[in-house]
Task: structure prediction
Amino acid sequence: MHFFEHRDGELYAENLRVTDLVEEFGSPLYIYSAKTFRRHFEAFDSAFSGLDHLTCYSVKANSNLCILKLLADMGAGMDIVSGGELHRALAAGVDPSKIVYSGVGKRAYEIEQALAADILMFNVESLAELEKIDEIAGLVGKTARISLRINPDVDPKTHPYIATGLKKAKFGLDIESSLEGYKKAKELKHIDPVGIDCHIGSQLTSIDPFLEALDKIMAFRDKLTAMGLDIRYLDLGGGLGITYDEEEPPHPSAFGEALTQVLADQSLKVILEPGRVIAGNAGIMVTEVLYTKGGETKEFVIVDGAMNDLVRPSLYDSFHRIGEVTPKGRPERVVDVVGPICESGDFLARGRTLPGVGSGELLAVYSAGAYGFTMSSNYNSRPRAAEVIVDGDQAHLARRRETYEDLIACEKGCLDSM
Ligand code: LLP
Result:
């Protein structure tokens, strides 16, 4: 459910006309709906109201400062994977005691930064990382709260690039190594093993893999309890899918209910790290049609948004619904929607049935709120798009469009030194 809908032949973001927003802020443009973000967070968080829990929004999905603030104001914690994300979360006013830090390659300075901020815990992904955190915590006179990220070897049945809980994945530790890891964690002086963590993949459309993983983890927790460890946190990661096309993922309430049934009697604080389910359908990317051309075998709609703005179609062949901002009821044709970048892989859709649109018209690319802007780049020296948050009848410029000067700012020093 989101608040991008057509009224009187015009696409609206909440109470504002998308056409007016593009007139003011330019194209391509990311538009987020604050009301949708709030609704998604509330639906997710309340699904776990039967459990002692903390919803740590996964910053990588959409890390705009205003989005982080909006969610933090609703009580969200954050799941981060870099010092940069920590910096963002703190700048947005997130309470550090609600921040968990995952990722296989934490740098020493990032560990120090997180210890200085006194975050809730590190989700540790290797024994070498565990030792490194202990060493740094010792140097700065702190104790680090940690979970080990367990790789439960469960098939999430999603795109291979975003399946993370299989044995062959680079993430986490298999169950045997984890046992060794907890023994070590118990001995290390500057480590406090307080939790267990797992994240099996993203865009899951069934609850079963989550339950399968949970089963393995609860059995593992019993072993840890027998070892005398007091495990207080259970972090189940993110991964709940959304509807891009025809998928029918479980509603957060069904997900919450299923987990609550298993965990209700456990004295554990449950941490969840949803990203896509909060942000995905709370944002669209609007792009202007530059040209159309009919090749011998194909028709192309060439737009001003490209793979540098939204890479998901090129990278995962993923589907994003595309529609006219101002529908005109023209006959449909099968087209490729492509951007200006010099790569055949630069497309937003291939073989898509769309009304015959013309130059200067606007298209909305839906479900672009998660892993859209955050995965954008400057490839082909294209300044990154602006981001706007609509809240009722207010539009907030959440990130200004980059300029040509921004493109060269970090390189200019070289001209003087050469
Ligand atoms: N927690 C951890 C440790 C993660 O690695 C991720 C996502 C999440 C939480 C949030 O997962 P979500 O609830 O959003 O599924 N770029 C890809 C998605 C990569 C996901 C990486 N990890 C895409 O565009 O589909």
Summary: The chain has two domains: 4-31+280-408, 34-278. The CA atoms of residues 205 and 249 lie 4 Å apart. The radius of gyration is 23 Å. Residues 34-278 form a domain with the TIM Barrel fold (CATH 3.20.20.10).
